[in-house]
Design brief:
rod-shaped; mainly alpha; 55 residues
């Protein structure tokens, strides 16, 4: 064969694009997970405060 293989080049390009999309998805879900943990912590703080303030 002479020159670059078009199938291989296409595969590499698609792999890189897929990896980029996966990284973006991971970042988005990572941020959502952090907010989820913050929300749970706030709920527990609220429950603790309500129990403390009850007579």
């Amino acid at each position: 064969m002479t020159g670059p293989d078009p199938w291989l080049e296409d595969f590499k390009r698609r792999s890189e694009e897929s990896e980029r999309r996966f990284q973006a998805w991971l970042r988005r879900w990572d941020r959502r997970f952090v907010w989820y943990l913050i929300g749970i912590a706030l709920v527990w703080i609220g429950v603790g405060a309500a129990i403390k303030l009850l007579p």
